[in-house]
Amino acid sequence: MNGTITLTIIKPDAVENGNTGNIIAAIQAAGYSIKAMKMIHMNEREAGGFYDVHRERPFFNDLVSFMTSGPCVPMVLEKADGNAVASFRELIGATNPANAAEGTIRKRFAESIERNAVHGSDSDENALREASYFFSNLEMVG
Ligand code: CMP
User: Which residue numbers in the chain have pLDDT < 50?
Assistant: First the structure.
């Protein structure tokens, strides 16, 4: 890989609403290349492991229950120029779509702070950890 990476998940609300293709198109139009992608339906242990840092938060159980409610699409994204993590968080907008800027992915496709269409890593370190949570080296293209 030449650029920096981030990990995103198209969440169950967006998959269920038929927005997977629209979100992938928006991501690619913004200059990211897809290094890995698959559709999975997580169980409680898998979703809880991904969101382990939030285990003590009041919203943890609801979050796990939502993330296991249907299939989702994790992807590793690479950006050739700039910082993938920071620029992707700008592209998706605020966690709560009510606060997300016009034109961002969450403004366009999210319903609420929980059903917020997409996840984006919050640091380079977490991007690597999250990418390897879902994908082996074999599943990531160079
Ligand atoms: P995400 O970026 O995937 O990381 C943690 C998720 O917890 C977040 O998106 C939200 O979907 C979800 N969440 C639910 N309630 C809250 C809350 N009150 N504050 C922050 N995140 C929340």
Answer: none
Q: Which atom of ligand 1 is nearest to the CA of 120?
A: 2
pTM: predicted TM-score of the whole model, two decimal places: 0.97
Q: Is 54 a catalytic residue?
A: no
- Kindly give the distance from the C-alpha atom of residue 29 to the centroid of ligand 1, in angstroms, as a whole number: 26
- For residue 88, give every residue at least 6 positions away whose Cβ sits within 8 Å of its Cβ, in sequence order, or none: 6, 8, 32, 77, 79, 120, 121
Give the binding-site residues of ligand 1, using a 6 Å CB cut-off.
Answer: 54, 59, 63, 95, 113-114, 116, 119
Q: What is the pLDDT of residues 54-76, one digit of tens each?
A: 999 999 999 999 999 999 999 99
